[in-house]
C-alpha cells in the first residue's frame, strides 16, 4: 500500500481519462451483474423439472372439419388403436399439451363463496381417465381417476366431479395442507380433489401459473383437439412418423398436424430465452473485453506518456517491481472506484428491471462474482503494460528529450 | 566515495559497436565537488549514468562508498541509488501531477520511512531550498529556478552521501543559475560529495576539481583546490 495516497492525489489532478474509465467499469459491472443474474434465472427456468418424461411423450393437434364426426367417440377409438401399438405406453385425447405455449387456464378458489376465498389460476388438462398415466404422474396423496369418472361432453353429461391437482396449487388454495378430499370451484362448478401430484407443468413456461395444474377426466367435443401419447423410451420418432397414417385410416375427415415430443415443444417455448441468454453472454464478453481494452489502453498511454517520469522514479530508487506495482495499484484503484459506483448502478438497474420487467431482486453474489471477475480481467489486462513500464531504463531520466 | 577502475561501456547494435567509455579510471573522495566537462558525445552522460547506477558497465569495476556494484541485482542497485545518491536533472524531472511535498516524498517512500519521518525530512529539505511555504503547489506553478530547487530538495531529502547533478543550471537564466550554484556549494560545504556534469566552463571553474571527458576517456583534469590523487594522475597519464 506504498503508493495509494500519491496515486490517488495524482489521479484527482488528472481526472478526465480516469473518470471515463471509472464510468466504463461502473457500467460494465452494473450491466454484467444484472445480465449474469438474468442468464442464471433463464437457465434455471429452462432446467426446471417439468414433472413429465418430455422425450417420451408425443403430442399433436388435429382438426375435424366435418361437424358430423362424433369427436369424443373418435378420440376413444383413436386411443384404443394407438395403444395397440407395441411401443405405446398410454394415450389420450386432450385439450392442451404441457410446455407447448398454447392452452387454457381457469380460475379456481377454495370455497363456493367468493368472499374470503383463496384463489388461483391453473392450467387445466382435460383428457381420458388415464391422463395421469399418460404423463407418468405419481400421485403423492389420494388416487388416480377411475374410468367411471370420465365425462364425455357431447353426451349431455355434467362437468366432471373430480380433479387431480399439483402440490403447488394445493399449497396455494389450501395452505394448511389438507387439500385432499376438499372441493375446488371454478365459477360455480365444484371439483373434489381426489389426488395430488408432485409436479406437472402447464402449457406456458413463462407464466406464474406454470406449476399450478389441474387434471380433469373429461373429453371435449371440440373440432380442434389434441392428442398425447406416451411411448417407450427411444420410440418417439417411430410414433411421430406413423401416427398420421394410422389415425387417418381410422377417420380421414380431419387434418392432423405434425407431431413432436414435449421436449421439442419445450425447446420452442424457451427459444427466446435461449436466444436472450446467448445474446447476453455475448454482451457480457464484449463489455468485459472493451473494459479490459479501455484500461489496458489507458495504461499503455500512461506508460508511454510517463516514460521520463518512470525513469526518474527508477533513478530515485524505485525497483522494477515498484514500477509494476505502481501501475497495477493505479488500475486497481480505478477499478475500485468503478466498482463502488458500479454496485450502486447495478442495484438501480435491478430496481428498474424489477419494477418494469418483473425481474427478481439481484443477489449480491452476482455483484460480488462480477466485481471479482472485473478486477481479475483488469489486472490481467494491465499486467503486460505494467511489465513494459518496469523495463524502462532509469537512464531515460538523464536524456534531454 | 567513488572509485571507477578500467571501466568500459560499449553500446552494441546490429551494425555498430560504440565505445562510450574506454578504460575509464576516476576516484572521487568524500566531500569533493567535481565538475565534469566535455564536448557533446564525449561520454559525459554515459559517465553520469554509470556513476548514478542508471546503466551497467561492460567491464571494469565501480565501487560506490566502498561497495562494488558489479553483479548487483536490480533491487540492490535501486536500493543503493535510493540510499547513497541524490539526482539533480537538467530538466528538473519533477512529476507534474504531484505537488512539491509529494515530489520530494517520492524517494523517501521507496526508502520505506514512516509518514512522520518523511514529513519531517520533506519539510526540512524544502526549508533548505527556501520553498517550505509552497509545498502544496504543483511544479507548473513555479518558475524554472524554483523547480530546480525542488529537485535539489528531493535529491537531498534522503540525506545521500553523493549528489549527481546533470547540467543543473542548463535550463535556467543566469540569475537562477547563480542561486542554484550557490545552493550546491552550500550543500557541498555541509559534507555532501557532488559530481556535476556541465557545459558551462564558468560554472565548472567554481568546482574544486574539473575533469574532462573526450571520446570516452578521462583526458585532462584541473585541480583548483587540490583533490585528485596521485593514482588518478597515473591513471590519466
Can you walk through the features of this model?
The complex is a heterodimer of chains A (401) and B (237). Chain A is an alpha+beta fold. Chain A has helices at residues 4-12, 15-46, 71-83, 131-134, 167-173, 236-250, 262-269, 271-305, 307-315, 320-357, 364-390, and strands spanning 57-64, 88-94, 105-109, 119-127, 139-142, 151-152, 162-166, 183-186, 189-197, 213-219, 224-231, 254-256, 260-261. Chain A folds into two domains: 4-47 and 272-398, no CATH class; 66-252, no CATH class. With 237 residues, chain B is α/β, with parallel strands linked by helices. Chain B has a single domain (2-236), classed as Rossmann fold (3-Layer(aba) Sandwich). Chain B has helices at residues 44-51, 74-84, 100-111, 115-128, 144-157, 174-189, 201-205, 230-236; strands spanning 2-12, 17-28, 33-37, 59-64, 67-68, 85-88, 162-166, 193-197, 209-214, 217-223. Chains A and B meet through helix 1, helix 9 and helix 10 of A and helix 1, helix 2 and helix 3 of B.
Quickly list its features.
heterodimer, A: 401 residues, alpha+beta, five-stranded antiparallel beta sheet, 11 helices, 13 strands, 18% strand, B: 237 residues, 8 helices, 27% strand, disordered C terminus
SSE blueprint:
The complex is a heterodimer of chains A (401) and B (237).
Chain A: H1 4-12, H2 15-46, E1 57-64, H3 71-83, E2 88-94, E3 105-109, E4 119-127, H4 131-134, E5 139-142, E6 151-152, E7 162-166, H5 167-173, E8 183-186, E9 189-197, E10 213-219, E11 224-231, H6 236-250, E12 254-256, E13 260-261, H7 262-269, H8 271-305, H9 307-315, H10 320-357, H11 364-390
Parallel strand pairs in A: 4-10, 6-10, 7-9
Antiparallel strand pairs in A: 1-11, 1-12, 1-13, 2-11, 3-4, 5-9, 7-10, 8-9
Helix pairs in contact in A: 2-8, 2-10, 2-11, 3-6, 8-9, 8-11, 10-11
Chain B: E1 2-12, E2 17-28, E3 33-37, H1 44-51, E4 59-64, E5 67-68, H2 74-84, E6 85-88, H3 100-111, H4 115-128, H5 144-157, E7 162-166, H6 174-189, E8 193-197, H7 201-205, E9 209-214, E10 217-223, H8 230-236
Parallel strand pairs in B: 3-8, 3-9, 6-7, 7-8
Antiparallel strand pairs in B: 1-2, 1-4, 4-5, 9-10
Amino acid at each position: 500500500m506504498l503508493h495509494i495516497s500519491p496515486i490517488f492525489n495524482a489521479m484527482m489532478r488528472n481526472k478526465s481519462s480516469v473518470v471515463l474509465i471509472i464510468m466504463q467499469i461502473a457500467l460494465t459491472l452494473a450491466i454484467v451483474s444484472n445480465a449474469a443474474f438474468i442468464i442464471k434465472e433463464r437457465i434455471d427456468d429452462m432446467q426446471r423439472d417439468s414433472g413429465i418424461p418430455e422425450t417420451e411423450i408425443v403430442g399433436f393437434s388435429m382438426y375435424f372439419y366435418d361437424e358430423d364426426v362424433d369427436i369424443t367417440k373418435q378420440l376413444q377409438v383413436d386411443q384404443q388403436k394407438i395403444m395397440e401399438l407395441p411401443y405405446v405406453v398410454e394415450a389420450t385425447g386432450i385439450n392442451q399439451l404441457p410446455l407447448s405455449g398454447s392452452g387454457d387456464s381457469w380460475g379456481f378458489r377454495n370455497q363456493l363463496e367468493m368472499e374470503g376465498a383463496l384463489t388461483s389460476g391453473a392450467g387445466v388438462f382435460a383428457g381420458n381417465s388415464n391422463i395421469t398415466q399418460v404423463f407418468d404422474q405419481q400421485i403423492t396423496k389420494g388416487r388416480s381417476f377411475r374410468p367411471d369418472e370420465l365425462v364425455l361432453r357431447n353426451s349431455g353429461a355434467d362437468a366432471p366431479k373430480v380433479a387431480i391437482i399439483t402440490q403447488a396449487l394445493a399449497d396455494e388454495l389450501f395452505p394448511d395442507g389438507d387439500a385432499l378430499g376438499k372441493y375446488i370451484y371454478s365459477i360455480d362448478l365444484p371439483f373434489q380433489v381426489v389426488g395430488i401430484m408432485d409436479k406437472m407443468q402447464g402449457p406456458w413456461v413463462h407464466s406464474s401459473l406454470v406449476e399450478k395444474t389441474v387434471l380433469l377426466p373429461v373429453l371435449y367435443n371440440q373440432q380442434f383437439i389434441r392428442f398425447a401419447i406416451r411411448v417407450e423410451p427411444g420410440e418417439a420418432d417411430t410414433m411421430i412418423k406413423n401416427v398420421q397414417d394410422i389415425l387417418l385410416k381410422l377417420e380421414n375427415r380431419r387434418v392432423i398436424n405434425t407431431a413432436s415430443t414435449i421436449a421439442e415443444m419445450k425447446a420452442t417455448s424457451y427459444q427466446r430465452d435461449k436466444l436472450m441468454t446467448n445474446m447476453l453472454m455475448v454482451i457480457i464478453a464484449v463489455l468485459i473485453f472493451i473494459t479490459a481494452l479501455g484500461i489496458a489502453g489507458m495504461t499503455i498511454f500512461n506508460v508511454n506518456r510517463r516514460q521520463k517520469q518512470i525513469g526518474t522514479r527508477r533513478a530515485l530508487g524505485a525497483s522494477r517491481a515498484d514500477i509494476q506495482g505502481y501501475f497495477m495499484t493505479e488500475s486497481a484503484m480505478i477499478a475500485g472506484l468503478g466498482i463502488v459506483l458500479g454496485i450502486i448502478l447495478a442495484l438501480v438497474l435491478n430496481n428498474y428491471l424489477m419494477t418494469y420487467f418483473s425481474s427478481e431482486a439481484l443477489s449480491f453474489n452476482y455483484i460480488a462474482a462480477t466485481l471479482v471477475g472485473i478486477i481479475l480481467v483488469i489486472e490481467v489486462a494491465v499486467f503486460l503494460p505494467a511489465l513494459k513500464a518496469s523495463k524502462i531504463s532509469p537512464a531515460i531520466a538523464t536524456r534531454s528529450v | 566515495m567513488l572509485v571507477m577502475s578500467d571501466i568500459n561501456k560499449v553500446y552494441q547494435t546490429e551494425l555498430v559497436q560504440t565505445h562510450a567509455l574506454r578504460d575509464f579510471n576516476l576516484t572521487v573522495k568524500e566531500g569533493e565537488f567535481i565538475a565534469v566537462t566535455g564536448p557533446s558525445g564525449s561520454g559525459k552522460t554515459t559517465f553520469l549514468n554509470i556513476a548514478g547506477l542508471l546503466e551497467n558497465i561492460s567491464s571494469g569495476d565501480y565501487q560506490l562508498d566502498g561497495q562494488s556494484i558489479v553483479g548487483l541485482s536490480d533491487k540492490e542497485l535501486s536500493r543503493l541509488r535510493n540510499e547513497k545518491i541524490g539526482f539533480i536533472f537538467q530538466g528538473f524531472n519533477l512529476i507534474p501531477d504531484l505537488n512539491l511535498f509529494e515530489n520530494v516524498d517520492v524517494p523517501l517512500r521507496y526508502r520505506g520511512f514512516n509518514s512522520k519521518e518523511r514529513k519531517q525530512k520533506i519539510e526540512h529539505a524544502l526549508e533548505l531550498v527556501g520553498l517550505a511555504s509552497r509545498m502544496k503547489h504543483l511544479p507548473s506553478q513555479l518558475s524554472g529556478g524554483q523547480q530546480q530547487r525542488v529537485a535539489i530538495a528531493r535529491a537531498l531529502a534522503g540525506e545521500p552521501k553523493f549528489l549527481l547533478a546533470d547540467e543543473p543550471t542548463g535550463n535556467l537564466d543566469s540569475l537562477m543559475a547563480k542561486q542554484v550554484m550557490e545552493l550546491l556549494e552550500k550543500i557541498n560545504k555541509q559534507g555532501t560529495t557532488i559530481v556535476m556534469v556541465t557545459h558551462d566552463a564558468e560554472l565548472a571553474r567554481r568546482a574544486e576539481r574539473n575533469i574532462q571527458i573526450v571520446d570516452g576517456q578521462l583526458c585532462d583534469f584541473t585541480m583548483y583546490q587540490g583533490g585528485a590523487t596521485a593514482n588518478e594522475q597515473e591513471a590519466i597519464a
